[in-house]
Amino acid sequence: MQKKPLIMLLAAPETSASVLYGLYDVLLSVGAVYLDMVAGTPGKELLDVRIVSADGRPFRCIGNIPVEPHAAIDDLVEPDAVIVCDMYTSIYDVPKGRYPREAGWLRQMHGDGALITSVCSGSLLLAEAGLLNGHEATAHWAYRDMFQRHYPEISLHSESVLCLAAEGDHIVTAGGVSAWHDLAVYLIARFCGYRHAIETAKVFLISGHSEGQSPYSVMTRPMESADGSISDCQAWIADNYATTKPVEKMVERSGLNTRTFSRRFRAATGFSPIEFVQAIRVEEAKQILETDALSIEEVGAAVGYEDPASFRRVFKRNVGQSPAAYRKKFQRISQIARPIGAQ
């Protein structure tokens, strides 16, 4: 009898129950549930799925949800794949040295040929283990600044939902929390074939995130800086983003020459001055598009763009969608969320 592929879900108290149990349910169903739903006869489960933790003892994850691992990380035979579930950390709290045992185990499993994958903030553990050095990867968009500052040897693509660039080195990373859907479909296709991936997607109504993370991304960089002149300009532009010639006015306000201002601004924020202005304008435009009925031209003018074409171009470059497509996507959510009886 052929051995089932073994997939281990690595979890910790910082893991989301939705990621852990969602992955467990979907992966465990492969080969069994679809046949039961369409023919009334369950098939055979095709994957061996186990929840593991550092010590194997029961714990409670985010939301005080109980987790009873099947084993400790050192108790089972070598897996075919490991999924590092999300392990939430603040965008200001770099998890250096927090998971030494798990990091060492991941290095060992990778060296033994296992496919190492992650969901959302789980990529931080892969980064801590050194497995992403020199590779392209993705993680939740909120961690892009952390990766840039603390893991510069990693090329983070925060706009991606599923990054396969390091697949040849047995590493695959998934972006935001719900990107576990995309990772699950990928793993099913890899270990069980595309037909089972499609059938499982039909059972669970999984459609993937073809638009990437960019439409969901929000500007998260701190507005304060240790550089007083730059911090003052950041605060000023946050209230005056629609002004004409914003960079010239910030340079004048700082009392610095243009080249020095640009250098110090990038050092403090990670943005060039015009990129920072554009990012703030786009964030304001997104909020207007999500709820208001202004025309696209009016939205552009409200955030400082007299030329509608320029507004559309900057918006699409930053968000990955046109203003009209973004409005359609998020106003649909606002309509669903509207209280019963509201007009």
TrEMBL record:
Organism (species): Modicisalibacter muralis
Q: Where is the HTH araC/xylS-type domain?
A: 231-329
This chain's protein is named: Transcriptional regulator GlxA family, contains an amidase domain and an AraC-type DNA-binding HTH domain
Q: Does the keyword Ion transport apply?
A: no
Annotated keywords: DNA-binding, Transcription, Transcription regulation
UniProt-recorded Gene Ontology molecular function terms: DNA-binding transcription factor activity; sequence-specific DNA binding
Q: Does the keyword Transcription apply?
A: yes
Pfam families listed in its UniProt record: DJ-1_PfpI (PF01965), HTH_18 (PF12833)
InterPro entries in alphabetical order: Class_I_gatase-like, DJ-1/PfpI, Homeodomain-like_sf, HTH_AraC, HTH_AraC-typ_CS, INH-QAR, Tscrpt_reg_AraC-type_HTH
Organism lineage string: Bacteria, Pseudomonadati, Pseudomonadota, Gammaproteobacteria, Oceanospirillales
Top-level taxon in the UniProt lineage:
Bacteria
